[in-house]
Amino acid sequence: LFCPLRDVCRASHEADPLSFPVRERKGVKRAHESWLSIVISRPVNRSGERREYALLPRPQSGLLGGQWSLPMKRREGIGAPLEGEFNEWFSELSVVTPKVKSVSIKHAFTHKEWSLWAHVIELEETDDLTLPNEVKWLEITDIDRLALGGPSLKMMLAVGVELKRRRGSGR
C-alpha cells in the first residue's frame, strides 16, 4: 500500500499503519460505597420448611429505582464493618435473634461499586421486630416474580436462598 505521507508518518515507521489511530482507553473511575444489609426470614408454617423474607420497594427514582431490596443501611468508612455497627442498627430494629451467618459481596455499577456486608437472621414464630412500614414479607415464589435489585439478588444467592435463574445472576 503506497501512502503519499509515508515518509513523515509515525505509524509507518513504528508499527503497522493500518492499526492506527489508536484510541486511548479511559480508566474506569468508580465511586465506592459501603453498605450494611440484613437477610431476615421467618417461618410461614409450624414446620419451618417454608420461609418468607423481608424486602422493601426502593424509591421510583435514583439508583435501582422501582426495584425491590433487602433492608440496607449506608455506612461510613471502607473495609469490613465492626460488629458494633450491626448491633447498633439491630437495636434500632429490635432484633434480638442472633445471626446465623455473615456474608459479603461486591456489586459494580457503571459508575460506582458497592461493598455489602450482611448478617443472616432466621426468626422464630415468637420473634418480633420493628421494621419500617414499607417492608413486606414475601415467599420465594413471590420474590421470583419481583424486580429484585442486583445487589439484593447477589446477597440472597450468597446466603443460599434458592431463587429461579435470572439474567445477570450468574446462575
What characteristic shape results from the CA principal axes? elongated
Describe the oligomeric state of these chains in a short phrase.
single chain
How is the biggest beta sheet arranged? 7 strands, mixed
Structural class: alpha+beta
Tally of DSSP helical segments: 4
Topology:
Layout: H1 10-14, E1 31-43, E2 51-57, E3 68-69, E4 72-75, H2 83-93, E5 101-108, E6 112-122, E7 136-139, H3 140-143, H4 150-158
Parallel strand pairs: 1-6
Antiparallel strand pairs: 1-2, 1-4, 2-3, 2-7, 5-6
Structure description:
The chain is of the alpha+beta class. Helices cover 17% and strands 29% of the residues. The chain has helices at residues 10-14, 83-93, 140-143, 150-158; strands at residues 31-43, 51-57, 68-69, 72-75, 101-108, 112-122, 136-139. Strands 1, 2, 3, 4, 5, 6 and 7 form a 7-stranded mixed beta sheet that branches. The longest helix is centred in the middle third of the chain and has 11 residues, at 83-93. The termini are far apart. The model has no long low-confidence stretch (mean pLDDT 81).
Short description:
The protein has 171 residues and is an alpha+beta fold. It contains four helices and seven strands, in the order H-E-E-E-E-H-E-E-E-H-H.
Structural descriptors:
about 170 residues; alpha+beta; seven-stranded mixed sheet; 4 helices
